[in-house]
Amino acid sequence: MARGVLEKAHSLLCRRKYSNVISLLESGNNPEIYRESFDYFLTAGIACLYLGDTGSAGAYFQRARHIRMTDPTLLCSQAVLFLRRGDTDRAISYYLDVLDYDPDNKLALSAMEFIRTHGSYEDVCKAVDSGEIEQFYPPLGINPDLIKRIALSVLLGIVLAILLLNFANVSRLFRGVRLPSSSSRADLSELFLSVEELGNAHKKDLTGGTYKYILSDSQIKKSYDTAMTSFQNYRENASLVEINRLLNSNASDSIKAKARMISTYFKEPSFDSLNDYDDNIEYSQVAKEPELYLGCTVSWSGRISNAVQEGRSFRCDLLVGYENMERVEGFVPLFFEEAPYPAIDGERPVRVLAKIKVENGRILLEGRAVYQPVKREN
After folding, report:
1. pLDDT, tens digit (0-9, with 9 covering 90-100), for 9-45
2. What single string gives the DSSP state of each residue in 22-90?
3. Per-residue pLDDT tens for 182-231?
4. Of 182, 146, 105, 144, nearest to 10 (Cα)?
5. Under 8 Å between Cβ of 69 and 94
6. Mode of pairing for the β-strands spanning 330-336 and 297-310
7. Contact present, 141 and 148 (Cβ < 8 Å)
8. Nearest-angstrom CA–CA distance, 4 and 2
9. CA distances, 283 to each of 79, 206, 254, 341 (Å)
C-alpha cells in the first residue's frame, strides 16, 4: 500500500497536479510512514518547487539530503533554489557536485552554461519572473494528459472531416453540441438551487440572529450564481467572497449549507495560480469588510518586523505596501505553522502568500509561502 501512494504521487507529478501531490503525501499518517524515504521528500520538494513554494521545497530537499547526499536530481533541485536567489556561487558548487557523479548530466551542463553567459542579477531576475528558470527544474517527462488531449483532438478532427465530406449542412448537425473541455472543474450540478430554495431564499423570521447583510431573494440568487460561476472560472477568491456574503446574510439555512459545500472543492492557490486565474485582493478592500474576505488567499508585499521563531513556528508583523519604505498600507500579524525556509530577511522586501483570518474584527494572515527577490550585490 505504501508503495502505491508514491507511485500515485509520481503519476500526479507527471500530470502537473502539484497541489494534489502535496495533499496526497501529507494526508493521514503518510509523513510518519515515510520519515526515512528519500523518494517521498524528493517528490514533495519537486512538487513545491513547481508550485512556486520555494520555502517548503527547500525544507523537503534538506530532509532528502539527510538520507542521500549524492543523488544528481536532488543536487540539481537544490542548486536551482540558489540560482533563483542569485547565489550563483552556491549554485555552481552544487552543479559541480552533480557533474562529479554524472559528468554528462544535461541539466547541470545547461545550467552552468546559463550562469556563464547570463549569470548577472538582472538576467537571473528576468529568468525567474518570466518562468524561464523552470528549464533548470527536474524534468517531469511527457504529460500523459497532454497525449490524451492531442489524441482526442486528432480523433475529433478526423470525425469532423468525415462529417464535412458527407453532410452539406454540417452547422445544423452540430447546433447546440458542446465538445468536452479539458479545463472543466468539479461537477457542481448537485449544488444547483432547487425551485423550493429559490422560492424561499431568505429567512422569514430574523429574530434571535445577527445578520451583516440583509439581501432580497434576487440578491441571494445572484450572489449564489456568482459563487458557482467564479469557481468554474478558477476564481476561488471571488467565489469565497460571495459565499461569505451569503453566510453572513439572511439567506436560508439550506442555501448557506450548499454555499459551504462549494468551498470544499477549492484548490490550494499558489503564487502563479493567484496571478494567472484568481483575484488578488488589495489590503484596503479587506480592511473595510474583513469578514467578507475570511479564508481568501492573498499575495501581499511589504517588509516584516518583530519576527519571532517559537519551536517550528514563526510569527512576525507584515508592513503591507512598505517594500519601498515609502508608505505603509497596513500593519498585519503574520503566522507560519512551519518556519519558512530560507528565513525571511527583514532587511529586504518580501511577498507572502497567505490566507486571511479574522479575530475580533482584526485581520490576521496564515502564511503559506514566501518570495524574496534576489539580493543585489554591492
Report:
1. 888 888 889 889 888 888 877 777 887 889 999 999 9
2. HHHHHSTTHHHHTTT-HHHHHHHHHHHHHHT-HHHHHHHHHHHHHH-S--HHHHHHHHHHHHHTT-HHH
3. 445 788 888 888 888 888 888 888 887 888 999 999 999 999 999 999 99
4. 144
5. no
6. unpaired
7. no
8. 5
9. 35, 32, 32, 25
Four-residue CA torsion sign, 127, 18, 349, 75: negative
Strand partners, 362: 359
Who's near 77: CB < 8 A, 6+ residues apart?
Answer: 42, 45, 46, 49, 57, 61, 137, 138
Q: CA of 118: how far to CAs of 125, 131, 301, in Å? A: 10, 15, 27
Amino acid (1-letter code) at residue 168: A
Nearest Cα residue to 350 out of 326, 306, 310, 320: 320
- The predicted-structure confidence for 110-146, as pLDDT tens digits, reads as follows 999 999 998 787 888 888 888 899 999 999 888 877 6
Task: Return the SS3 of 374.
Answer: coil
Question: What type of residue sits at position 5?
Answer: V
Q: What predicted TM-score, i.e. pTM, was given to this entire model?
A: 0.51
Average pLDDT of the residues of the chain: 85
Evaluate if residue 375 carries a pLDDT over 70: no
Amino acid identity of residue 249, one-letter, is S
**Cell numbers 518583530: residue:** 306
> Which one-letter amino acid corresponds to residue 273?
S
Q: What is the DSSP letter of 100?
A: H
C-alpha cell of residue 148? 490524451
97 touches 72 (CB < 8 A):
no
- Identify which of 41, 51, 28, 53 has the alpha carbon closest to the alpha carbon of residue 367: 53
